[in-house]
Amino acid sequence: MEIGMIGLGRMGANMVRRLLRQRHTCVVFDRSPQAVMALVAEKAVGAASLAGFVKKLASRGRCG
Questions:
Q1: 31 φ, ψ to 5°?
Q2: CA max distance for the chain
Q3: How far apart (Å, rounded) are the C-alpha atoms in residues 54 and 10?
């Protein structure tokens, strides 16, 4: 399964980590580049903007 997560505070980041452990693909975005990079280091797909977030989801799955 592929999921997109916007907002990587405590709850959002932990949800992504649990999904990654279960081998799901996660595309992530947050206003804080550091939050995105922390999850990219854990194998998430990072996006630097909302437009990039939508594009990465659309190019990887059936979105859009």
A1: -65, -25
A2: 29
A3: 22
Contacts 24+ apart (CB under 8 A), 55-59: 56/27, 57/2, 57/4, 57/27
Strands (E), the chain: 2-6, 25-29, 45-46
Express each pLDDT in 11-62 by its tens digit.
Answer: 999 999 999 999 999 999 999 999 999 999 999 999 999 999 999 997 766 5
> Using an 8 Å Cβ cutoff, are 26 and 4 in contact?
yes
The answer to whether 37 touches 63, Cβ cutoff 8 Å, is no
Per-residue burial over 32-47, b if 16 or more Cβ lie within 10 Å, else e, is eeebbebbeeeebbbb
